[in-house]
Amino acid sequence: MSIRGVLMRILSDGAFHSGTEIGQALGVTRAAVSKAVGVLVESGAEIHRVSGRGYRVPSAFGPLDRERILECLGADATLINDLQVVEEVDSTSLELLRMRGTGARGQVCMAESQSNGRGRRGRGWIATPYANLMLSVGWCFDNGISAVAGLSLAAGVATARALRAFGVTDAGLKWPNDLMWNERKLGGLLVDLRGEAAGPCLVVVGVGINGRISERDGPGIGQPWVDLGEILGRTPDRNRLAALLIRELAQMLRRFGQEGLAPFREEWIAWHCYQGRRVRLTGAGPDREGVVEGIDQSGALLVRDDEGRLAAFHSGEISLRPAAGVGAAGVGAWRV
C-alpha cells in the first residue's frame, strides 16, 4: 500500500493527527507527509489542516477492505471469480476491459479513487475519493452482444435490491440507468460491451453510488443529487454495501445469461420513478412528450403521446414535464 493509502487509513477515524505522528507511523518526514496530503487534496480527497492540531477528514469512514467484503459475502463469495480493491485507477470498468482475455465470469474491481470515471454519453463521473462506492463487475456471455439487450435495466434492479437491503427503502430507478432518491440522483450505471455480434462477449457493469459528496465536488454534478450520508444520517458502511451489490449483480448476471431481461422487466417497472408520469424525451431526435407506459422486452422506453400513439425509444434522456395541456404547446406528436 502506498504512503497515501496508509495515510488515509490513519485519518479514517476522523480525529486530528499531527504531521509528526503520521510521519513516525509511516517512517517518513513531515515534509513527505505534507506532500502526500497535497497530492490527495489535489485528487479530490477532503483533508482539513489546522495549525497546531494537524490533519483530519470531515467524518470518520471505513476504508475499502477486500477481506471484510469477502467476509460479508460469506458463502456467496463463490459467485465471483476474483475481487480487486485498489487505491486508485483511471476507471474500474476500463481496468476490467483491459483484462478481457481472461474469459472469467465474475471479475470485480473496486477503487477508492478514479481519475477518469465515466458516465453516459462521455460525461465524467464525479465521486469524492475515499467516500463513495465505485465498483465494476465483468462477465462473459457466449451468445453475442445482441443477447444482452436490456442488461443495464436488469443491473438497475439488482442495484435497487442491494440498496433496499442496505436500508434505503425509497430509492428508485430512472430510465435508462440512473439511481434516484426523492427526485435526486443517488448514483448511476454504465454497461460496456466488447466482443462479437454472434460470439463470446465481455460485459462490464459499472456502478457508482454516492456515499458522501464533498462541498467541492457537489457543484460539478450539474443536477440535484443526494448521498447515502444524508439519507441514512450516518457514514455508510461501504464494505457491507459492496458485498450486497456484488451478490445481487452476480446473481442477476447468472440469471440474465439464461433468461434475459424477462424475469426483471416487471420489477424494473415497479422501481421506475417516472412510471405513469408525463415526461419529455430529448437526445433521440426532436424532443418528444408523453406518458411513460413501461419498457418493452428489449428495455426500450414506451411512451404514449397526446394522440394516443405508443412509441418505443432505445436511447435519450427523460425529464418530468407538466400535466397534459400545461406548458406543452408546440410539441409535436411522433409516428410509430
Give an overview in words:
The chain has three domains: 3-56, Winged helix-like DNA-binding domain superfamily/Winged helix DNA-binding domain (Arc Repressor Mutant, subunit A); 66-271, Bira Bifunctional Protein, Domain 2 (BirA Bifunctional Protein, domain 2, 2-Layer Sandwich); 274-336, SH3 type barrels (Roll). Strand 8 and strand 9 form a beta hairpin. By secondary structure, it is of the alpha+beta class. It is built from nine helices and 14 strands. Mean pLDDT is 88; it is low at 325-336. The strands form three sheets. Strands 3-4-5-9-8-7-6 form a seven-stranded mixed beta sheet. The chain has a five-stranded antiparallel beta sheet with strand order 13-12-11-10-14, with no helix packed on it. Strands 1-2 form a two-stranded antiparallel ribbon.
Class computed from helices, strands and strand pairing? alpha+beta
**What number of structural domains do the residues give?**
3
How many E strands? Answer: 14
Cα distance, first to last residue? Answer: 57 Å
Q: Write the CATH fold name of the largest domain.
A: BirA Bifunctional Protein, domain 2
Helix proportion range: 25-40%
Instruction: Say what oligomer this is.
Output: single chain
* Radius of gyration based on Cα positions: 22 Å
Question: CATH H-level name of the largest domain... which superfamily?
Answer: Bira Bifunctional Protein, Domain 2
Spatial order of the strands forming the largest sheet = 3-4-5-9-8-7-6
Strand proportion, as a percent range, falls in 25-35%
| Series of H and E elements | HHHEEHEHEEHEEEEHHHEEEEE
Judging from the principal axes of the Cα atoms, what is the shape? globular
Low-confidence stretches: 325-336
The total of helices stands at 9
> How would you state the average pLDDT, rounded?
88
> What is the CATH C level class of the largest domain, in words?
Alpha Beta
CATH architecture of the largest domain: 2-Layer Sandwich
